[in-house]
Amino acid sequence: QVQLVESGGGLVQAGGSLRLSCAASGRTFSSYAMGWFRQAPGKEREFVGVISWSGTITNYADSVRGRFTISRDNLKNTVYLEMNSLKPEDTAVYYCAAHADVGILRTSDVEYGYWGQGTQVTVSS
Question: Model confidence over 62-76: pLDDT tens digits?
């Protein structure tokens, strides 16, 4: 089992920045690829980005590429989502998730076995 707890959400003005954190406990954190997803009211959950177990490979959704950056610290069992140039359409509940890293980074939420409880990000215009 892997337990995930997100933090760092809040209210920010358009153009601002936030950094989300996801702390993991349980099984070996460094063997998991870590993804970020988000869900806006009335919409389906969507992929934001993912980082490999080593932190050397990342993949992002087109909507956030160039604005968001995922990083991880395996010594602290924590993954981060740095969000810059935020837009009102980035408003959503953000979730971190984990899947066993076997060389392919997953972008579909159904392929992730572990999820955090989510943290709200609201971007005002």
Answer: 999 999 999 999 999
